């Protein structure tokens, strides 16, 4: 091990840049989560619609986004999509679209498995009690399904929070992007990347603990 | 706006993409093997009777799981050599990061699998006259491994997809070739679409296998 003098001034002096990046990270994550929750629900409903064409499209969407690397999706949306549609998107919007759709594919599976995991007899019982299908869904199936969906959704949120860093590759000015800029400007990659790793850890770890707590709290005993 | 697709640019350069794919597969397999081994060691430390070892293993798991992979690969490639004085090749840095990252997740898979076996199984084995080691080898581990297989499969898929990020330190794997070819040929539409397709074709069978393992486990 060589002797090395740490120079954390490189981090302190550029803290405003890093915090500005952090702001975008904290903006992107909830936006992508919102896109994922809404689009994912739509995809799940299409998949469960029972109409062959619609459910095939929904399945294709889900499988494509779940079987390719997020980096490929991000770069595809940023460089290829504008050529196909003729609409150029800013890095921020491209990144949001790619990340949001990626999350939507995983969310769709969470919604779907949540709904289909509820035993069929629950629905039969509700119908036998004179409820309509809509009532059975709203009062009997969804309340039980939501309880099973929330834990994996919160885990997805933590993964998504970390994945925002991948958007640095298309020039979204979030924390990881600023880290690379500061590291190369100051020639202090050790201090800068260490500090940024600590920032991500301090933000992600409490969320991970919260996810564990939610898993314990909402565990279904069957 | 309509784009005329020129798939010739893909077939003409398929050799480069396949060379990249080969690197992606080698990188993933080596990292998976190391990740499985290191993960097991970390899981055993996490279950050890000494508090300091449990704590250290827990910290290792939490650090690797609570930071983005991109931050990890940049740290290992650019920051770690300053600390140790040894420069790393892109391949070594990629293997270190991918396998450590995977080992943290795999350690939790192992731990859950081992703790998931009811203590009655071990007690019954001991009552039949087996030693502790025999009980672990013949009774507990075979059941635990079956429990763990689906989760290990999921982690292997994640690792395969995450390997694309190693292109950022210029390791010449599939994504790196895709980005270079896209720059050279100016045909990003065809190159990136073909690359996405290659990843999907390789990941999808793995996903089907994992689904099969999940179903079989639920049936059991």
Question: What is the name of the CATH class of the domain at 27-174 in chain A?
Answer: Mainly Alpha
| Principal-axis shape of chain B | flat
As for the CATH topology of the domain at 27-174 in chain A, it is: MetI-like fold
Task: Summarize the amount of helix of chain A as a percent range.
Answer: over 70%
Give a nutshell description of this structure.
The complex is a heterodimer of chains A (222) and B (220). Chain A is mainly α and 222 residues long.
Word description of this protein:
The complex is a heterodimer of chains A (222) and B (220). Chain A is an all-alpha fold and 222 residues long. Chain A has helices spanning 9-13, 15-47, 52-67, 70-85, 91-116, 120-128, 133-163, 175-186, 189-217. In chain A, helix 6 packs antiparallel against helix 7 (133-163). Chain A starts with 8 loop residues before the first helix and ends in a 5-residue tail after the last helix. Chain B is mainly alpha-helical and 220 residues long. In chain B, helix 2 (14-46) packs across helix 5, helix 4 (69-84) crosses helix 5 (90-115) and helix 8 (174-185) runs antiparallel to helix 9. The N and C termini of chain B lie far apart (54 Å). The mean pLDDT of chain B is 94. The A-B interface holds A 1-2, 4, 63-64, 66-73, 75-76, 79-80, 83-86, 162-166, 168-169, 176, 179-180, 183, 189-190, 193-194, 196-197, 200-201, 204-205, 208 and B 1, 3, 62-63, 65-72, 74-75, 78-79, 82-85, 161-165, 167-168, 175, 178-179, 182, 188-189, 192-193, 195-196, 199-200, 203-204, 207.
């Amino acid at each position: 091990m060589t002797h090395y003098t740490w120079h954390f001034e490189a981090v302190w002096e550029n803290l405003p840049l890093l915090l500005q990046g952090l702001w975008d990270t904290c903006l992107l994550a909830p936006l992508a989560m919102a896109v994922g929750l809404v689009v994912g629900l739509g995809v799940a409903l299409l998949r469960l619609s029972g109409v062959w064409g619609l459910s095939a499209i929904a399945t294709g969407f889900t499988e494509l986004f779940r079987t390719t690397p997020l980096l490929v999706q991000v770069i595809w949306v940023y460089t290829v999509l504008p050529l196909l549609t003729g609409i150029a998107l800013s890095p921020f919007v491209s990144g949001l679209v790619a990340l949001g759709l990626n999350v939507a594919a995983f969310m769709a599976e969470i919604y779907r498995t949540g709904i289909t995991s509820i035993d069929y007899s629950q629905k039969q019982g509700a119908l036998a009690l004179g409820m309509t299908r809509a009532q059975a869904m709203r009062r009997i199936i969804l309340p039980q399904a939501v309880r099973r969906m929330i834990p994996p959704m919160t885990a997805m949120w933590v993964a998504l929070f970390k994945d925002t860093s991948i958007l640095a590759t298309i020039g979204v000015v979030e924390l990881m992007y600023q880290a690379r800029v500061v590291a190369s400007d100051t020639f202090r990659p050790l201090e800068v990347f260490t500090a940024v790793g600590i920032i991500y850890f301090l933000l992600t770890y409490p969320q991970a603990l919260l996810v564990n707590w939610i898993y314990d709290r909402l565990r279904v005993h069957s | 706006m309509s784009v005329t697709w020129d798939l010739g640019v893909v077939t003409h350069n398929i050799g480069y993409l396949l060379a990249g794919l080969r690197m992606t597969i080698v990188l993933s397999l080596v990292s998976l093997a190391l990740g499985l081994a290191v993960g097991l060691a970390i899981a055993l430390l996490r279950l050890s009777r000494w508090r300091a070892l449990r704590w250290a293993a827990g910290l290792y798991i939490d650090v690797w799981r609570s930071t983005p992979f991109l931050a990890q690969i940049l740290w290992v490639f650019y920051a770690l050599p300053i600390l140790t004085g040894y420069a790393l090749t892109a391949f070594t840095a990629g293997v270190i990061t991918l396998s450590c990252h995977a080992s943290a997740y795999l350690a939790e898979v192992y731990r859950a699998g081992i703790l998931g076996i009811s203590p009655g199984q071990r007690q019954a084995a001991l009552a039949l006259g087996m030693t502790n080691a025999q009980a672990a080898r013949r009774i507990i581990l075979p059941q635990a491994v079956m429990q763990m297989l689906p989760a290990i499969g999921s982690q292997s898929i994640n690792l395969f997809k995450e390997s694309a990020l190693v292109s950022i330190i210029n390791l010449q794997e599939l994504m790196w070739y895709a980005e270079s070819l896209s720059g050279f040929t100016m045909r990003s539409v065809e190159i990136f679409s073909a690359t996405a397709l290659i990843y999907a074709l390789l990941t999808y069978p793995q996903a089907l296998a994992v689904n099969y393992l999940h179903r079989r486990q639920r049936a059991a």
